[in-house]
Amino acid sequence: MPQNNIARHIEALIFSSVQSISVQEITAALSAVFNQPYQEELIEENIQLIKDRYLQDDYAIELVHLNNGYQFLTKKTYHETVNQLQLHRSKKKLSQAAMETLAIIAYRQPITKLEIEQIRGVNSDYSVQRLLEKELISINGKAETPGRPILYSTSPLFMDYFGLNNLTQLPQLKDIAKEENTVGETIE
Fold first, then answer.
1. pLDDT one-digit tens code per residue, 40-98
2. Which NCBIfam families does the record match to this protein (predicted)?
3. If both were cysteines, with which of 28, 65, 88, 112 could 149 make a disulfide (CB 3.0 to 4.6 Å apart)?
4. Residue 35 Rama label (left phi>0; alpha psi -120 to 50; beta)
5. CATH number for the domain including 37?
């Protein structure tokens, strides 16, 4: 395959991927299609060329590195426009209960449904089911406790959805907590 076409094939792979796609996945796909090995360095060089091209003002999208892979996203300039579309699709938004459940799973994973319910104080069957359907969480095995309950963790789609490379990028609870939200006196 001519070297100038490789960038187009890489661009097609990234564009067609619902989630971020890694350099290793791109390399494997190209090697399989063209029946020859490709070096990751060549793939990375071409990804940089694609990335540079989409930085131009002519494009409303850009190539972003997240979750150890690459994905096309809308440039920040157009977020308000895209947000209007999302408002019209509000039926697909997560409920407050689902967001609470997702936050608990993100910070405490892997976690059982019983542990989620103990933290929330209410039944979380529906929220967990909706998050599984939306593929924001996944089943991560079974706990080594009596009854062997299912363990839940966040999924790669969660990472893409919230624009994270890893879980350490989640806001720390100390950054979120405000003094007016405390009860009682603080003793030092």
1. 999 999 999 999 999 999 999 999 999 899 999 999 999 888 888 876 665 567 889 99
2. SMC-Scp complex subunit ScpB
3. 112
4. left
5. 1.10.10.10
Is 98 found in the same domain as 64? Answer: no
* Residue 87 domain flag: no
In a domain, 164, yes or no: yes
Contact 64, 76 (CB under 8 A): no
Q: Which two tokens stand for residue 88?
A: 């019209």
Range of the domain at 158: 94-181
pLDDT reported for residue 159: 87
On the question of pLDDT at 34 being above 80, the answer is yes
Q: Which residues pair with 138 in a beta bridge?
A: 153
Q: How many domains does the chain have?
A: 2
What region, left, alpha or beta, does residue 8 occupy, with left being phi > 0 and alpha being psi -120 to 50 degrees? alpha
Each residue's pLDDT tens digit, 104-155: 999 999 999 999 999 999 999 999 999 998 889 999 999 999 999 999 999 9
